[in-house]
Amino acid sequence: MHAAEKKVRAFVRVKPTAHFAQDVIKFGPDNKSIDIYIKKDAKKGVVNNKQTDWSFKLDGVLHNTSQELTYETVAKKLVSEALTGYNGTIMCYGQTGAGKTYTMTGATAEYKHRGIIPRAVQQVFKAIACSVDSFITVRISYLEIYNETLCDLLSTMTSSGASDVQMAVVDCPQGVYVKGLSIHSVSGEEDALNLLFEGETNRVIAEHSLNKNSSRSHCIFTIYIESRVRVLSDIRCINSKINLIDLAGSERLSKTGSEGRVLKEAAYINRSLSFLEQIIIALADPKREHIPFRQSKLTHVLKDSLGGKCNTVLVANICGEALHVEETLSSLRFATRMKWITTEPVVNVTYDSEGTVKTLEKEISLLKQELAMHDSLVNRSLVTYGPLTDVQVAEIKSQIHEYLQGNIDEIDITNFRQVQEVFRQFKLIVRQQEGEVETRLRSKYVLIDKNDFATIAAAQKLGIVDVDHHLLKRQDVETKPTPVSPNPDEKKKKFGTSSEQFKKEGTKNFFSGKDLAAHLPSKSQVIIPNKNLDVKEKARNEDTAKNDAQPSKPVSEEISQRPSSPPSRAVAFEQFKEECGSEINRIFKENKSILLARRKRSSTVARRINIIKQEMEDIKKALEAQRQERSQQGEYVDEKGRLIIDEKEFLLIMKLKDLKEEYRCSYAELQDLKAEIQYCQHLVDRCRNKLISEFEIWYSESFLIPTHVQNALKPSGNIRPGMIPINRVMCLEEDEQERFERMQEAMLPAGPDSAAFYKAKMKTDQKHTYNRTMSSLKLMHKKPGHITAAGKHRALPFLHVT
Ligand SMILES: Nc1ncnc2c1ncn2[C@@H]1O[C@H](COP(=O)(O)OP(=O)(O)OP(=O)(O)O)[C@@H](O)[C@H]1O
């Protein structure tokens, strides 16, 4: 079997019953086989060759299985594969009342008993909610095939509400589609369920002797998924659809006791199911070339959903009572045949070139805006980013010439295009010079093939050339100044290297400019001496080794590696000061040490002032003593009457004067220091506060804020600065409406997950109660026997007067 080939999977689901025929239906221990035993009919005599027991092997037997487990077994994988681009079909087949609708749609009144369709819808939208890198749209259609007529169960949901559009099954290269069938975009689970319930309400219900509510039509609920993923600059579109099919009952006509309209319905159903069976048999036969899909509307619509490129699952619903054993056998046969069909599912991918162009245009315009913003931030104005004009190119050319001649030290660069142009111009100059060198060399030398030993020997014999000679000549050429590398050291190294190369070769006697150029290191290369190169290379290798040993972790990985319980604040603070807070901690420490130094200085100055003060006091006392002694001894005055003092007193007075001056200066210094200390203290306080607040943020981000909130707060996340204050994000304050909705969801029997289901159900019920009321009012005003447009072939439930 081909690697991608698969078989259609078939399951049997047994409807629970109190009268389960244990002797007739037996399940194998592997839960995959089912045996049917029918007692021989004694009335048919001794010769009775009718087969009495059958064994069927399927992919699973669902007996007494919950809706949830049924979904997990039958549909979950198919739906998740549909989300990656594979078409999927799930079909319920079986006799009337065997539980097809229960399996497919489920009991719409209770969330727990919901069937495959609502569960598939939920799975799709849950997956969408989790996908971050793709843009997914979901659309829904609900088709009914009733008596070979196609009906749109959602036509009441279109703006016109009209259902008179002529519908037809159309084949096209992309597959089959139903022309005129409305397809509705849905934004969420509730929206999609609204459509399901609306369609369910519109289904044709006919009176039937086996089951009063049995549906007499085939219904196909389709979920179309389109996801657009950006792969580099391409937009990849993945399209898939999930067909969820509830077939009409497959029982025999004779058994139903139907008559009139219901008999006609049963005939149509039997015919389309028998065509379906023929298609299944044909598909299972690899030799069959033509598959008659067009025989019935059902088989035509299912053309690309049966086998082929699609994942297909069949659920055969059977009744457990002995009474229905014939139908059970027929359903099991059908299921076994389905299992023979081989499928080869493929992903439906297309590339949206228009979308790609649009995305690129959008990105260019965004980048232009960003550039403009950057320019305005660094006060650069009048920078253009379009292609360079001829004048601009000429300007660059002239600047390069000026630069090469040493007239200017720099070339003005304002954008990337200019950088490219500068390199282009340099390349042109290099090429031009290479050409000139080659021409010069060719005019001087003759090129001889290095393997042409005869010519070389002859030339050497003639003394025209030898190895040393050509080296000499080369040196002539090499020592000519070249404008490319203005650095003379570099030039020397460059030529040194090439000369060594030539010496080593020693076989080539004459060189063309081209040969020379091939041996010279490329002029565009930066020449690094071998020694330097070794050191740098070694350092780089060490770096690489270091990096290899400690691979840099992505942020998300770091977050995911956070400890289960946060470290103590004291421990974390020490870590913070070492890492993220090291800079602010450094500034804080610096400020603190300045403050400490000022304080020290201030106390030194204060101490000095005190000493001065003390000295001044002492001198004052000594002076007083001197004065007293003088007055006791009698005072002397000069001719002008000025008091004469002795030298000791004079010296004391002078010392006091000096001390006063020193005191004044020290006092002023102390005042300055006090002001400085105050300012430094303020800075230290601010640094401390900043250190603490930064630490608090770091601590919360590293150990407390949940990862998903952090992701949302990242620049690319859902929450951008200015949208919601951080405290609002953290405590997620609810408004009244949110609180009400949360309470409402908490009260739901199956928790918040069931909210969409119940809301959709409520909306549909409300709508139809309203419609019924309005119809009742209208009917009351109609004459008896008046036929409504909607009553053409179906008895819509909301037209019943209740
Ligand atoms: N597995 C089940 N568990 C509980 N109830 C079930 C189960 N299967 C079917 N039923 C009940 O049996 C009744 C008939 O089932 P349902 O309408 O699904 O049959 P059906 O095969 O769709 O019939 P029809 O061919 O007429 O559409 C419903 O009341 C349904 O709730």
UniProtKB/TrEMBL annotation:
Its main location: cytoplasm. Essential for normal male fertility and for progressive motility of spermatozoa. It comes from the Eukaryota. ATP binds at residues 94-101. GO terms for cellular component: microtubule; podosome; sperm flagellum; vesicle. Interacts with HYDIN. The gene is KIF9. Keywords: ATP-binding, Cell projection, Cilium, Coiled coil, Cytoplasm, Cytoskeleton, Flagellum, Microtubule, Motor protein, Nucleotide-binding, Phosphoprotein. Pfam families: KIF9, Kinesin. This is Kinesin-like protein. Belongs to the TRAFAC class myosin-kinesin ATPase superfamily. Kinesin family. GO terms for biological process: extracellular matrix disassembly; microtubule-based movement; organelle disassembly; regulation of flagellated sperm motility; regulation of podosome assembly. One of its GO terms (molecular function) is microtubule binding. Residues 7-341 form the Kinesin motor domain. Residues 476-500, 528-569 are annotated as: Disordered. It is found in: Cytoplasm, Cytoskeleton, Flagellum axoneme. Residues 606-676 form a coiled coil. SMART domains: KISc. The lineage of its organism: Eukaryota, Metazoa, Chordata, Craniata, Vertebrata. Residues 533-546 have a biased composition (Basic and acidic residues).
